[in-house]
């Protein structure tokens, strides 16, 4: 069968709504991205996904699209799948604090999900820009690996504002130190080995802190200021959601988990995006970088079981058409499968896995059947024209597939013909 002959009815429709892209180089001219304007419209939040972390082509594409959205469309914030608490010193660096060489030290303990180069671009851009681009973290601390990045600054806050309550957060820190890791992949198994009394004590302390923060808001603000209070409260909320996540993951692996119980992290990330959107002020437009499975607007299910309500679903519910989800995927090449390994640096090993030919029914098969290479498609127009709601019912997630109605899950998609695993990833 000729390569140009579609093997599924969606290929022709996809071809009609796709445009070729010329460059992967983030520094290349941006004219080929102009059709993106029609996809994003008046959106206040545009999410840029990827079907796997640690992929060179996705990192390059997201950096190009960030440039386009900032330089040509007036976007003012890069929000990243990175700790809310840890994001503040990175924003300070992006605004010119410290030296250019400081960034490596600030990111030394973080999973290398591609935040470094966008930050370097923002710092260079801000050196001459009339309107600076800000950086914002949205995630629970250390990708769920440790409560310490959130609780340690809360202790500093309470030391000034409410010394009476300081012993509570210090007790929480002591327990959190006993299982802290670089990601949830290492921390969650360590958490399960804690005595039940320690697990319960940590949850109880965090909930008491959260309720106290809310109950004495007027007192805390009078002793300090509104912004410091709101950041400290959001950090406590991060710790609570991460702590809930440990219990949810334990239940999931034990086969006793509640339906969609791992949604705690995603609802926190969605709340963080809205938190930043409000506090950066009128006219704020956010570029949001996260995994496809976090930005999609439809629920996440595996083997027919609902496992999570993603960040994108929450944001779509709150922002409607002011939220746009742009997925990134690939037809061939290799992907980075993450395999749990407590002895690995981040709690997981990265397997450089060769991709099998796209499954029929997938968006990747539609791109292949349509003969499209590096290209971008407006899925909203395709959605409006698809007969009977027909469209791809799956999209790659690493070397597997996530089954979901793709035309409902995303507003646009960028396809690269080949993906390669970054060569500087440490196991």
TrEMBL record:
InterPro entries: Emycin_Estase, Emycin_Estase_proteobac, Hydrolase/PRTase-associated
Name of this protein: Erythromycin esterase family protein
């Amino acid at each position: 069968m000729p390569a140009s002959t579609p093997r599924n009815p969606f290929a022709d429709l996809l071809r009609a709504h796709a445009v070729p892209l010329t460059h992967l180089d983030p520094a290349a001219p941006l004219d080929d991205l102009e059709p993106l304007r029609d996809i994003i419209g008046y959106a206040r939040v545009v999410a840029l996904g990827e079907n796997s972390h640690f992929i060179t082509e996705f990192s390059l594409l997201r950096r190009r699209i960030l440039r386009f959205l900032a330089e040509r469309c007036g976007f003012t914030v890069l929000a990243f799948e990175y700790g809310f608490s840890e994001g503040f010193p990175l924003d300070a660096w992006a605004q010119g604090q410290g030296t250019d060489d400081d960034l490596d030290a600030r990111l030394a303990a973080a999973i290398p999900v591609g935040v470094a180069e966008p930050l370097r671009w923002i710092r260079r851009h801000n050196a001459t820009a009339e309107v600076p681009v800000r950086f914002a973290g949205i995630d629970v601390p250390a990708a769920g690996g440790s409560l310490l990045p959130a609780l340690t600054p809360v202790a500093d806050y309470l030391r000034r504002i409410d010394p009476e309550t300081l012993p509570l957060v210090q007790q929480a820190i002591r327990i959190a130190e006993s299982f802290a890791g670089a990601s949830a992949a290492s921390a969650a198994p360590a958490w399960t080995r804690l005595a039940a009394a320690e697990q319960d004590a940590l949850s109880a302390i965090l909930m008491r802190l959260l309720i106290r923060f809310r109950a004495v808001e007027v007192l805390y603000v009078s002793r300090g200021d509104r912004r410091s209070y709101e950041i400290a409260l959001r950090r406590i909320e991060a710790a609570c959601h991460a702590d809930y996540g440990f219990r949810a993951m334990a239940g999931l692996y034990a086969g006793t988990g509640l339906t969609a119980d791992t949604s705690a992290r995603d609802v926190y990330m969605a709340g963080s995006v809205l938190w930043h959107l409000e506090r950066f002020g009128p006219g704020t437009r956010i570029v949001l970088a996260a995994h496809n499975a976090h930005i999609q607007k439809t629920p996440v299910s595996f083997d027919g079981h609902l496992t999570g309500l993603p960040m994108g679903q929450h944001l779509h519910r709150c922002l409607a058409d002011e939220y746009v989800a742009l997925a990134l995927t690939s037809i061939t090449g290799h992907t980075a499968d993450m395999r749990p390994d407590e002895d690995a640096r981040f709690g997981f090993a990265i397997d450089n896995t060769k991709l099998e030919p796209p499954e029929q029914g997938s968006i990747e098969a539609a791109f292949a059947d349509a003969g499209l290479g590096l290209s971008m498609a407006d899925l909203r127009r395709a959605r409006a024209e698809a007969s009977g709601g027909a469209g791809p019912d799956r999209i790659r997630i690493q070397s597997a597939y996530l089954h979901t109605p793709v035309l409902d899950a995303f507003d646009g998609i960028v396809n690269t013909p080949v993906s390669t695993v970054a060569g500087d990833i440490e196991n």
